[in-house]
Amino acid sequence: MAWNRKHLLDIESLSADEIRLILDTARAFKAVGERAIKKVPALRGKTVINLFVEPSTRTRTSFELAAIRLSADVINFSTEASSFKKGETLKDTARNLEALSADIIIIRHSAAGAPHFLSRVLLASVVNAGDGAHEHPTQALLDIFTILEKKGRIAGLKVTILGDILYSRVARSDIWALLKLGAQVTLCGPPTLVPKTFEQMGCRVTHDLDDAIRDADIINLLRIQHERQRKAMFPSLSEYTSLYGLNRARLAITKPDALLMHPGPINRGVEIDSESADGERSVILEQVTNGLAVRMAVLFLINGGVGPQEIAA
Amino acid sequence: MAWNRKHLLDIESLSADEIRLILDTARAFKAVGERAIKKVPALRGKTVINLFVEPSTRTRTSFELAAIRLSADVINFSTEASSFKKGETLKDTARNLEALSADIIIIRHSAAGAPHFLSRVLLASVVNAGDGAHEHPTQALLDIFTILEKKGRIAGLKVTILGDILYSRVARSDIWALLKLGAQVTLCGPPTLVPKTFEQMGCRVTHDLDDAIRDADIINLLRIQHERQRKAMFPSLSEYTSLYGLNRARLAITKPDALLMHPGPINRGVEIDSESADGERSVILEQVTNGLAVRMAVLFLINGGVGPQEIAA
Amino acid sequence: MAWNRKHLLDIESLSADEIRLILDTARAFKAVGERAIKKVPALRGKTVINLFVEPSTRTRTSFELAAIRLSADVINFSTEASSFKKGETLKDTARNLEALSADIIIIRHSAAGAPHFLSRVLLASVVNAGDGAHEHPTQALLDIFTILEKKGRIAGLKVTILGDILYSRVARSDIWALLKLGAQVTLCGPPTLVPKTFEQMGCRVTHDLDDAIRDADIINLLRIQHERQRKAMFPSLSEYTSLYGLNRARLAITKPDALLMHPGPINRGVEIDSESADGERSVILEQVTNGLAVRMAVLFLINGGVGPQEIAA
Known about the structure:
Strand content of chain A: 5-15%
CATH topology of the largest domain in chain A: Rossmann fold
Order of helices and strands of chain A: HEHEHEHEHEHEEHEHHEHHH
CATH architecture of the largest domain in chain A: 3-Layer(aba) Sandwich
Largest sheet of chain A: 5 strands, parallel
Mean pLDDT of chain A: 92
Oligomer: homotrimer
Distance between the termini of chain A: 18 Å
Number of domains of chain A: 2
């Protein structure tokens, strides 16, 4: 199959084949990352702009490195020093960046739908690097890539997502990707953060941690998103930890080969203890490494790249 | 003619021929921007430092991209993280950057004359990216470039600059450039922001909007510069808009081919309504695109470039 | 001799031969900085991350340019926008950067020992760009490089370090480097900032300025480190200046060829007056230029470079 999209806005609108093409392309780029010189000329002379309206180091740096390794020129647009203070609209800011002949604009924004909006008003390609509590598609792609690399398949796997589902764009993107590729998805956490309405997406919802993790092949923890919670959704962090925090005792009931994932940054001692985060079953740092390959693949494909065969050549 | 200057500090001291040489060179670089690979090796191995002591994204990004496209290495010097907090003088900071073998220092500063001061104490080339309410020469050059591209000439054109003239470095640079190239310049706005003293520069001053725009070939709007006004110079934004804001009704009396310009960022609904800002006569985004070409030309010439013939070759 | 270290963490653990190898390599890189195209391909395709947890422009920019001139890809990790706000540990942040396949992590941190800690938990190379009041090894190396260039030797020279020794990582690194290479080191300043305990390192300690500078070949001034002093260590800045500030009258008693050094940024009128800072004996700006060459040498060697013969080739 061939890639025909100009933007990467969400996982919801991708087909299973499109997801697979990104993953195959990412696999070829991961091999590039193991060479002595980790660069390819695919985006030479192209301009990529990181428009991060919400603070982020991890994701911004990953996209920046991905673009650099494709030989693109990358500009970081810092909101601190930006025209937003002067009252300019997002649309005007983005159209100005485009007028500087940006080829690809990577946007993170606190408003759900901001990347979709930009994709309708710009000629440049748009990549969603996280929009409000809506989607974070490259995070889901790197999660799927990591699972596939470790387990060899997605279809039929039991994947539990644990924590603050309601406010999590990572959860929404993961759910879409996992279901499209045939996994069984269980969501778990306090009722205020994991409402039953998620069953309508095709997930199982439980508020019982043991029930959620006992048979899981993958346990994907989410960070407690203080910054996106407008009011307290649970009594205290320590109560959350006592009910849903992962630790050695709790992991004792899980399958021995169940993997632990986390999009980072980790709150050690809150959603997971250090022993588990650093243990053999944790693939948290591999997720970071795979994120770079996945983001190279996304930038490559939306820039007109054909697929993995082109990279090997 | 040949370029003989090491710095670009203002428009006031340039000859009409020097302005034309920059514009001709910018035209060649605009063509480079339309190639698949938008880079030329002219400044390879040279170090360009963006020393922005006042916040700016738009202009800093434009200079950064201009330098990157010339293959220079660019360092952004952020004032937030700077030694200014530790009490270092501007001169010491700039001499330290020069000691790191900076070839070109691009400076924006809230103090009028800061670039001229640096040009006297440094061996590196200095480019003024806006100094207080004094000058913003590359903005004027991109304005002139845009007018010339659209109208084919500058001499004899009627150009109206509208808004906060008193506090505007853009207005001062535009006035110098327009008058040197033979345009007729009208300034308009509230008496507190457009004092009669500007007539001494050779401009017409009026406080009547209809009078200012009726015969204009070009209407160049300025942003209301809240940040540079120490006391209120007009009763309220809404009063400003009711008297001087551009909208469809007011534009009805203008020439059908009059162009609308604005240095950005736009305050939509204040100095201009959205319909007019986004209408056919608006060249606001083309100004941004042309700014990149003009800044490439300036960096190229002060680095010893000869002229447009060199770029085509 | 050959370089065998993966990290540059301090001067204390280096041998005199290792220091000399860095200096010889830096000399070759200084020659590169005088070419028209100041770049070499030594680190092409390598990723260098500037992890500056304490604000710094001078040192960060110097390392950034050093890496760029070696053709590395450089990412600046800003603490403002960082995950530290979200409660991530330094170890997790650094391991995440490493998972993005950083080859070299340059760290500045307010906690003494932070680079050593990272070197134990990371596979990447670590360079100490200043840790608390502990060490700032590349500053000492550039100081030694500058002295050697001017005086032709270190052994037997009388070097006076003047000012806030107690809180100065520069002083500690300088002392180690100078003593290892055979200089005689005198420390001078108010008793609260220059305690007698430094005699145990092998230095002479005096609180009498004339005694400290009369026979010195080198007078190395330190900045008064307001930000690292938790309580007032002397009555006032003006009292400090009256007792220990350098000026023309005081320099009259020194050797005519004694050099003045300062790591910057200078507090003009506090530790030194402007006439002396800008005078013929001042090598302050040469220190900055040499810092770039020394940092190129450090990055080159820890990346596996053999020595100066490789650069000339």
